[in-house]
Amino acid sequence: MHRDKLLILGAGITGLSAGVSLSKEIYEANNIPGGICTSYYVNPESKKTYLYTDGETYRFEIGGGHWIHGADDYVMKFINRLSPVKCYERKSAVYFPDWDLYVPYPLQNHLSYLPRDIARKALDEIIQSDHRKDVFILADWLRLHFGKTLCELFFFPFHELYTAGLFTKIEPQDKYKTPVDKEQIIKGFKEKIPPAGYNTTFVYPERGLDGLIDKMAKACKVNFNKEVNEIDTKKREIFFKDGTSAKYKDLISTLPLNKVIKLTNLSVDELEPPYTSVLVINIGAKKGSRCPDHHWLYIPKSKSGFHRVGFYSNVDSSFLPKSSRGNNDRVAIYVEKAYLPKKNLEAEEIKRSCNEVVKELQSWMFIDEAEVIDPTWIEIAYTWSYPGSKWKHGAIQLLRQNGIYQIGRYGLWECQGIAKSIKDGLQVKYGR
Ligand SMILES: Cc1cc2nc3c(=O)[nH]c(=O)nc-3n(C[C@H](O)[C@H](O)[C@H](O)COP(=O)(O)OP(=O)(O)OC[C@H]3O[C@@H](n4cnc5c(N)ncnc54)[C@H](O)[C@@H]3O)c2cc1C
Fold first, then answer.
1. Does the domain spanning 35-91+274-383 belong to CATH 1.10.8?
2. Does the beta carbon of 308 lie inside 6 Å of ligand 1?
């Protein structure tokens, strides 16, 4: 990697981390830093959106609640130095609306919460499953590990919504999110057991993610409103939408891998992998009489098609307007609904989805009157791979040969959270 004329693309959390570490210029399409992690504020009276709070605002994030989990000491030290964090113990569950039943996450570890006959059947199927078998498709992996009963009850309908139907075509991914520990599963059939999984505790900055991002951005040189339109790898020049350009020797790119391949006009001789887009609906509302106290819920079945609902204000009351923090009469919520790849969603479809989601949350009595309904669109939200595909590896290598080093969740086309994204950025100077 050449240190002189090294530029960074994207001022999301990964690009900012690289900017702090390398002290090199960042080029960012948007007019604010932070990418999908950015927090913003909405006043319930004026409905105005702000990048700061005057107290009487809801705090939301563009990509829905962003909780930091799995950070090692190195990353935690970095975060804490800029912005002290609070630590939380996860409270999440699978919610079955037809039964009005909450089963702690992960479902397979908490079979005792299910009707006894279903739990018994599910347990027998899991015990009999032979995990040594090779499977190449996510749906097959789920069936092999959790059996027909749990798949029909939860895993298949949930993944149908979460992957917008792709789970029958893509390879298994994020296995760490779905632990398979037969001993714990048997124990959880007999009794209530403690939480398990990858994010049993998580942290969040005391002054919001925007507080952390603001500090990071101030430590970097970010050029805003600089959307990259083309990258000429021969001349080593980037062209921006505003008609300007910049020369480079090497690039650190946090932009999605498939986009960078297109921007460079390079080609990988394999089918491009799929991704899913997500409509995030941020809602500020009067609290409903049956609003749960969970941090987030996985939903296998919803009329309006969402697969996850999170409760910002159940994690921390600082997401609520100041006047509601003591009496807890409001709730700040995010809802995720997945789509097959789309650059944008029609305004009509967004409006319809927002109305349907709000109605459904009201019918579950999670919310009363909605004061703020603020949708955001994430074109590339979840990245997937076809079984056996070498596209990702090929694309990363090809770009490297042309002086472009891809890092971060979208740059590397891998499912990673904020902690890993920060580490990718901070460690880029060590030549990862
Ligand atoms: C729905 C959802 C929920 C999530 N929840 C969590 C969570 O709770 N905890 C967690 O740890 N992680 C979570 N994640 C993952 C987390 O969002 C990512 O790890 C992290 O935000 C990745 O940051 P990034 O900087 O790599 O990407 P981004 O945030 O996407 O930043 C990329 C930047 O590049 C810019 N850009 C794009 N194209 C161009 C262009 N052509 N020219 C110039 N600039 C461009 C964008 O504007 C953006 O600012 C979640 C992800 C999703 C999708």
1. no
2. no
